[in-house]
Each structure stands twice: as C-alpha cells, then as structure tokens.
Amino acid sequence: MTSLALEHCLIEKNGLAPALIDLQHTLLDAGAAVATPPRASEEAIARVAFDLDHSRTKLLEDAIDELDTQLPPLRQFVLPCGSLAAASLHVARSTARRVERRLVTVLLPPEDSGLDPEHLIATAVTPGLLPFFNRLSDYLFVAGRFASHHAGAPERSHAFQKETDYQRSEPLFSRTSPE
C-alpha cells in the first residue's frame, strides 16, 4: 500500500520516508491479525493482537496534527495532485479506505450474510483495526498534501459542477473502437 509512496518520498526527500517505513511494519502486523482465524490458539491470538490500547492509532493522530501544522488551512475540497509522492500517497489513501470498508464487512457482517463464523477474523485481535485504518487514510491524505506542499505544487480546489456543466457537443469518451 505504501511502498510506491515510500520510494517517491525517498527521491523527493520530503521527510516522510521514516514514517512510511514504520507504517509498512504496522501494516504487516495488521495483516497478521486479519489472517488469524478465530479457532487459533490463545497464544497465537495474543501474539497478533492489534492495537488493543489504540496506541498505534494515537501515533497516527499525532502525526496528522504535526503535518497539519506545516500546511495552509484546508478551506475546501482539494483534488489529489502534486508531486509523484503526493499522488502515490493519495492512491495509498484510497486503498486504506477500501481496506477499511472491507474490514467492516468481515468484522461486522449482518446476521443474514451467510458468512461462516469460522471464516471470520478472531475478534480478540481486531478491536484496533477499524480505528487504525480510518485514521491511516486520514494520515495518508494529510501526508499527500504535505508532499505536494513540500514539492511546491499548488493545491487544486474542487469546484462542484452542475449537471448541465457536463453537457458536451461531442462525447468525452467514445464507445466505438478506433479504426
């Protein structure tokens, strides 16, 4: 999730690389928690318990606050853009959101989902997963803004458009194949 962003951050020397390396280790720990079946031994479950005290989530929150103090205030929606590091961090952010949504379906399936409890994650190891991934995506958003700011790239504000703004004389995407 963060490896491409890490490489771009190393090239751009924006100072985010150490945090991204730590995140890679943390993501492997989270993966171990997700991969642990509920029928695993108590010892195995204890070994992979993830962020039970929410300390990892708190570290992300502190890092968000630290980066945010170095950025101009966010007054409107912005488009993910800037440098290659910023773009890679925004891709990682969307991946973290997707992981969070998927974890919700696995951790909190509806009663009538038909999911076999044997295939669900051991709940003893997961209390910190959802808050962590929620804050991870927020961290990656702020880190993307930081990388863009560090590179001197301006933020592009999102302008909400009306339905009529999308009408064109020619289609933007053609449904016919090129000849």
From TrEMBL:
Bias (Basic and acidic residues): 153-168
Annotated region (Disordered), positions in chain: 153-179
Transmembrane portions of the chain: none
Ranges where the Cobalamin adenosyltransferase-like domain occurs: 12-146
Top-level division of the source organism's lineage: Eukaryota
InterPro entries recorded: CblAdoTrfase-like, CblAdoTrfase-like_sf, PduO-typ
GO MF entries: ATP binding; corrinoid adenosyltransferase activity
Keyword field: ATP-binding, Nucleotide-binding, Transferase
Family that this chain belongs to: Belongs to the Cob(I)alamin adenosyltransferase family.
Protein name, UniProt field: ATP:cob(I)alamin adenosyltransferase
